[in-house]
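pipeline/complex-builder :: batch 7 item 3
reading input block
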Amino acid sequence: MSGEEAAAPQQPDQTEERTDDPTGEPLSGVPKSSEISPPAEEPAEALEAHPGEALDAPVEDEFTYRALVLTGYGGYDKVKVQVKRGKPHPKSGEVLVRVKACGLNFADLLGRQGLYELLPAPPVTPGMECSGVIEALGEEVTGRQVGDRVLVLGRHSLWQEVVAVPASQTFLMPESMSFEEAAAMPINYLTAYMMLFEMANLRAGQSILVHMAAGGVGIAVTQLCQTLEGVTVFGTASASKHETISQGGVTHPIDYRTRDYAEEIRKISPTGLDVVLDPLGGSDTHKAFSLLKPMGTLIVFGAANCVTGQKKNLLAMAKTWYNQFTINTLRLMHVNKAVCGFHLGYLEDDELITKTMNVLLELYVQGKIKPRIDSTYHFEQVGDAMRRMHERNNIGKVILLPEPKMEKEGENSEEKASPESGETKAKGEEEEVKKGETDQEEVKREEN
Amino acid sequence: MSGEEAAAPQQPDQTEERTDDPTGEPLSGVPKSSEISPPAEEPAEALEAHPGEALDAPVEDEFTYRALVLTGYGGYDKVKVQVKRGKPHPKSGEVLVRVKACGLNFADLLGRQGLYELLPAPPVTPGMECSGVIEALGEEVTGRQVGDRVLVLGRHSLWQEVVAVPASQTFLMPESMSFEEAAAMPINYLTAYMMLFEMANLRAGQSILVHMAAGGVGIAVTQLCQTLEGVTVFGTASASKHETISQGGVTHPIDYRTRDYAEEIRKISPTGLDVVLDPLGGSDTHKAFSLLKPMGTLIVFGAANCVTGQKKNLLAMAKTWYNQFTINTLRLMHVNKAVCGFHLGYLEDDELITKTMNVLLELYVQGKIKPRIDSTYHFEQVGDAMRRMHERNNIGKVILLPEPKMEKEGENSEEKASPESGETKAKGEEEEVKKGETDQEEVKREEN
């Protein structure tokens, strides 16, 4: 991604003064999107969705589409469905994509709390990955056709029914890949692959610790470790997920809620680990560093410990910051260790991202990796989707669907969820979320 | 190396009360080595140098051998030749090596100044690498025979005519390898190889900066980079060495004395470098970090900036420490970079060291690497040898020879040096050491 500008799809041109947000909350206080999208875009033009047709149709202001909008920092209720008017127009080098599925990432939870600086200030449409079908081409686009199924990687603003994005940020989906899988792929698998093979140089026979092993990155890491012979994977997750992650390739699942994971690892591997991936930050980074064997590599790729409850928690942030791992090079020399930071959002190497994404798609075709979909939620259920991830109830990826939820007879759309797209939404959520665990302080990892 | 105990050869049992130090300095104030070698070794036994003979000969106290001894921290004159009495006895698992050549390393200069904590307090025999011929075997030694030509890696105490060392720290020399080459190999090439391929994961087509490109590690790094396709090597060295290092494979030699190397590199490679190897420390580490491209790796493997004059320089140390590079993981995430420390002396992974040494010996046999010998000095000339390295006049490795210098007719041994072992000692030293450059402040790199 060559910069914020290129990566962010167009902001919508007009916002309807109505909402189909199922919570029925009024949009008072939310500015029109025309106020929030400087520099002003040219007026949206009509896009006839006929393959190959030139983009010279008259302005079609009547076109509307649904988008999720972060209306301010705070809890789950800050992300609302809004209806935008005016079809996005693919500029030169861009394609218009009809979005079928979107990925939810931990960074989106941070963004909602105002803790993710790469997300512009509200009101803004979040969303860094999606999949869909190309509906129109801008000028000078090569290698893409109307009707192509693609997955899309961006910086934000992909959670909407249609998006105009640079063609270079789209990747053709393998035939056997579902839209949900495609939306689950870019962020988690790029992150996992680059950490393992670009930074850590993981090799056959080595050992690795991955936290949140049942999360999107955790599962991607576990699958990619299986592409090498004899990698020992230590993975932290709550006990209820151990069977699943074991089947996925985690050699030693550890319940971080009831045990000190560092002690457990030292019992099994007293000499330490070759690689530790740390998405937590704070005091866990210190533990991670101490678990490395000489010549080992620590990669910090998040600060999940900053997030506790729904809203920004200054105490948790202060603790995470206070415990932030700082090291000088003399100490590193004395212990022969490597400390790395990774954040896909800050990586602006288009060539490397494209190369890696193509490697991943090839691994998918070979059957070596396959995104695991935890659950799917319609846009109007985004709060539930975020809660599921926030409370660590997911095993695999949480997916958002732009299409409106169809109410079935006798069902109340606000209380029940139906299986979608072949995946069961929030499968078993009720059983897993035990009383007390959803409390703000309980959700936080015990050891912090 | 599994620890200090295992790696340090026996201390000599007795010190002769005389010296053949050509400077003729009395050894007043230097304690007998029997005072300096706790725990007391068993009395040295005689070692008949007949292959296969059992080590049950009577004690041969009359056996004497020469060793270099650091008698106290300070200038070049603190390292003296002493004659030890009593042949070292190879314990179980050890071999006795008749030493033919020893390597001089930057750490030896630090050690002399009291800046290398892995060297025990004086009086002590320095020396971390040598080559020679196995003269006797301890019990339970397999895979080695009397008469084998070996190179030896240790923590210290190898600068003596005979040493008893664990057989596991010896490696059979290829037939075509000279003793000087063998003594030049372990420290520099292990350091270079592990940094490039274990830590940095250098790959074809990448770019790298190596400081002191004409030094032992610099030349090893340059040669190892040639084993990959299309690696761009930036190397700093004074202008007089550019032709030589260019021929060796440095793509862009940079005279750090007359130019800002960081500016020069940015002109040629504006996006930065994949790998920077930093043996300097202090403010140069900051420059190194800023020169990295995203996903780039910095490896700090020394603090040469601490060393200015012959003796410990508190100001230089303070500056280096004050400027010591410290980083927190949040910043690393924002820039997607890796920071590593490497120091062979602190690495206790015998298996990795052995594996890597064998890879290096195979690369030597294939003709892909070949240590470059700058100059050879007899033990009694160790001060000159250290001065040559200290003043950065060497191109390649400085070697020490245990055998006494043979005086030729009409020559004064203290003022002139003769070519030895097929290598010219301190070739062209007089021309290269320009007036003023040997001054303590001038020797220091200008940019610090």
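note: Chain A touches chain B at residues 194, 198-199, 201, 278, 281, 285, 293-295, 297, 300-303, 324-343, 346-349, 352 (CB under 8 Å).
queue -> next item
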